[in-house]
Amino acid sequence: MKLAEALALRADAARRVEQLRARVVSSARYQEGEEPAEDAGSLLAEAEETLDELEALIRRINRTNAVTVIDEGLTLTDALARRDVLRLRHALITSAADSAAGRDQRGAVRQLRSELKMLSALPVGELRARADVLAREIREIDVRIQRANWEADLLD
């Protein structure tokens, strides 16, 4: 099985656990004299089984990520960490640029010349250019990660 297939199975299992959790919660109590909509005990057991399968799958994915090299010395785990931090950095820079440009100032437009003028404490253009570079880096590393996901075989 390829790593990408395992990632899809992991997502499916996580969704299944959440659906089962919601069904357990809705069936865990019922009114006296009525029957519960579903057997909460069997739903709970099914959720536990699915969680065990999910844990085994996550362990295999993590082992595979740790040993799969996508570039000179860069493992898939390293690339995922890099992509996560690039996304956080991009969000930070974009938010800073938006704020400096006044995008978050709802209705804070000067009505009179005597009102105080708001000034930018950061170079908006430079921040936007930096955000563009970060977005490109995110796309590039994401392509490499996706390629590795489809090429790497899942470890046992």
Outline the structure in words.
The chain has a two-stranded antiparallel sheet. It is flat, with a radius of gyration of 24 Å. It has helices at residues 3-27, 40-67, 76-100, 124-151, and strands at residues 69-71, 74-75. 68% of the residues lie in helices and 3% in strands. The protein folds into two domains: 1-67; 70-105 and 112-156. By secondary structure, the protein is mainly alpha-helical.
Task: Give the key terms.
156 residues, 3% strand, 4 helices
Q: Could you write a compact summary of the structure shown?
A:
This protein has 156 residues and is mainly α. 68% of the residues lie in helices and 3% in strands.
The secondary structure category is mainly alpha
Provide the gyration radius in Å.
24 Å
Number of helices: 4
Instruction: Name the overall outline.
Output: flat
Q: Average pLDDT value?
A: 93
Number of domains: 2
Proportion of helical residues: 55-70%
Reading the helices and strands in chain order gives HHEEHH
Indicate the low-confidence ranges by residue numbers: none
Number of strands: 2
Q: Describe the largest sheet.
A: 2 strands, antiparallel
End-to-end Cα distance, whole Å, is 10 Å
Q: DSSP strand (E) fraction?
A: under 5%
Strand order of the largest sheet: 1-2
Topology at a glance:
Blueprint: H1 3-27, H2 40-67, E1 69-71, E2 74-75, H3 76-100, H4 124-151
Antiparallel strand pairs: 1-2
Helix pairs in contact: 1-2, 1-4, 3-4
